[in-house]
C-alpha cells in the first residue's frame, strides 16, 4: 500500500493524505484510519487514480461529506476518494444549471434561492454533496433530487464518461441507478428549476430551518434519518411506539427529540451505533411487525 500511495503522490493528480482518521470526515464522527485520502483535481485525474487502484486491486470508496455513512472502527486498508474539486457551478439558462458532484447541497439551495429559482427548498437542510444526494436520491418535504435533476454525467466502471437522462437514473424513494450500480460515479448534474419569488422561497427555507431546529437533535453528531419511512407510516413513530426513545448502547442513543435519529452523545464508536441500529430494527419488527429499511450505508464492516 505504501508503494501505491507514493505512486499517487508522484502522479500530480491532486492532494494525497496518508493515514487519515475517518472520524473527521463523517457526520457521526466515527470511523477508523484509512490508508489514504485522495482529492482528484479533475475527471482525467480521477480516471488515473481509479486505473492505478484497479490494476493493483486496491479497495476504494468515493465519499462526499460523509453525512450518510457509518464506518467501522477497523482500519480501512484502501483509498478514500473525495470529489471536493468537482465544485463548479454554471447557470446555463435562467432556470437551468450545471453543478459538480462535490458542491455542497445546502450551499446550492441558497444560491438558487437568491436567483428566485424554486424546487430545491427541500435540500436546504441536507448536509451532503450534490453527488451524494443524487446517489441516494436525497429528499425531504415530499420532494427529492429525482424531481429536479435533468441528467447526470457519470463515470462508468470501465472509465468511460457518459450522460444518463433523468429516466435512466431510475430515481425512486431514497435510491437511484447509481445506488444499485455502485461502480458508477456521479461527476456532475444538470438541474432544472422553476422561476419563483425570491422572498417567498427564502421564507420557506427559513421556516423549514426553524422546524428542523425545533424537531431534530442538531447539537449532537448524527447522520440524519436512520431508516426509510415504510409506505404510509413514519419510522420515528414506529420507533417511539416500540418504546425506544432515549435507549442507548455504549455512547450511541436513540434521540429523545426525533426517534429516527441516532446520536453520538458520548464518544460512541461505529460499533455502538451499528449495534443500536440493529437492535431498533429487531425491536420494531417484534413489537410493530414492520421491517425498517436502512437509509444509511455501512462501510468497512466485512
Describe the protein in words.
There is one protein chain. The protein is α+β, with helices and mostly antiparallel strands and 302 residues long. 30% of the residues lie in helices and 25% in strands. The protein has helices at 2-10, 43-55, 105-114, 130-136, 166-169, 177-180, 198-215, 235-241, 270-288; strands at residues 14-21, 33-40, 60-63, 69-71, 76-82, 89-91, 96-100, 117-118, 139-140, 143-144, 149-155, 161-165, 185-192, 194-195, 248-249, 252-254, 262-264, 297-299. A 5-stranded antiparallel sheet has the order 6-7-13-11-12. A 4-stranded mixed sheet has the order 1-2-5-3. A 3-stranded antiparallel sheet has the order 15-16-17. It is globular, with a radius of gyration of 20 Å.
Shape: globular
Rg from Cα: 20 Å
Query: Sheet with the most strands?
Result: 5 strands, antiparallel
- β content, as a range? 25-35%
Backbone structural class: alpha+beta
- Number of DSSP-assigned strands: 18
The count of helical stretches stands at: 9
Spatial order of the strands forming the largest sheet: 6-7-13-11-12
Gap between N and C termini? 19 Å
Residue stretches low in confidence (pLDDT < 50, at least 5 long) are none
How are helices and strands ordered from N to C? Answer: HEEHEEEEEHEHEEEEHHEEHHEEEHE
Please bin the fraction of helical residues: 25-40%
Based on the model shown, name its key terms.
25% strand; single chain; 30% helix; globular; five-stranded antiparallel beta sheet; four-stranded mixed beta sheet; 302 residues
List the helices and strands and how they pair.
Blueprint (H helix, E strand, L loop, with lengths): L1 H9 L3 E8 L11 E8 L2 H13 L4 E4 L5 E3 L4 E7 L6 E3 L4 E5 L4 H10 L2 E2 L11 H7 L2 E2 L2 E2 L4 E7 L5 E5 H4 L7 H4 L4 E8 L1 E2 L2 H18 L19 H7 L6 E2 L2 E3 L7 E3 L5 H19 L8 E3 L3
Parallel strand pairs: 2-5, 3-5, 4-18
Antiparallel strand pairs: 1-2, 6-7, 7-13, 8-14, 9-10, 11-12, 11-13, 15-16, 16-17
Amino acid at each position: 500500500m505504501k508503494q501505491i500511495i507514493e505512486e499517487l503522490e508522484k502522479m500530480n493528480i491532486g492532494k494525497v493524505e496518508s493515514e487519515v482518521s475517518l472520524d473527521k470526515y463523517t457526520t457521526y464522527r466515527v470511523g477508523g484510519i484509512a490508508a489514504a485520502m485522495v482529492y482528484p483535481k479533475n475527471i482525467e485525474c480521477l480516471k488515473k487514480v481509479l486505473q492505478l487502484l484497479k490494476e493493483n486491486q486496491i479497495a476504494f470508496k468515493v465519499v462526499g461529506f460523509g453525512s450518510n455513512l457509518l464506518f467501522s472502527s477497523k482500519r480501512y486498508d484502501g483509498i478514500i476518494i473525495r470529489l471536493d474539486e468537482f465544485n463548479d457551478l454554471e447557470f446555463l439558462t435562467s432556470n437551468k444549471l450545471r453543478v459538480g458532484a462535490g458542491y455542497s447541497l445546502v450551499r446550492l439551495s441558497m444560491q438558487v434561492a437568491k436567483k428566485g429559482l424554486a424546487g430545491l427548498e427541500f435540500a436546504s437542510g441536507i448536509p451532503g454533496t450534490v453527488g451524494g444526494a443524487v446517489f441516494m436520491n436525497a429528499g425531504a418535504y415530499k420532494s427529492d433530487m429525482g424531481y429536479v435533476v435533468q441528467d447526470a454525467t457519470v463515470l462508468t466502471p470501465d472509465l468511460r464518461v457518459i450522460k444518463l437522462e433523468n429516466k435512466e437514473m431510475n430515481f425512486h424513494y431514497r435510491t437511484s441507478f447509481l445506488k444499485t450500480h455502485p461502480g458508477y460515479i456521479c461527476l456532475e448534474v444538470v438541474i432544472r428549476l422553476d422561476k419563483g419569488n425570491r422572498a417567498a422561497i427564502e421564507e420557506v427555507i427559513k421556516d423549514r430551518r426553524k422546524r428542523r431546529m425545533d424537531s431534530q437533535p442538531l447539537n449532537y453528531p448524527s447522520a440524519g434519518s436512520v431508516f426509510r419511512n415504510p409506505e404510509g407510516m413514519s419510522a420515528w413513530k414506529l420507533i417511539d411506539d416500540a418504546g425506544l426513545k432515549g435507549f442507548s448502547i455504549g455512547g450511541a442513543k436513540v434521540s429523545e427529540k426525533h426517534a429516527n435519529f441516532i446520536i453520538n452523545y458520548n464518544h460512541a464508536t461505529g460499533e455502538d451505533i451499528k449495534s443500536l441500529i440493529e437492535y431498533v430494527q429487531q425491536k420494531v419488527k417484534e413489537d410493530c411487525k414492520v421491517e425498517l429499511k436502512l437509509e444509511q450505508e455501512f462501510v468497512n464492516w466485512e
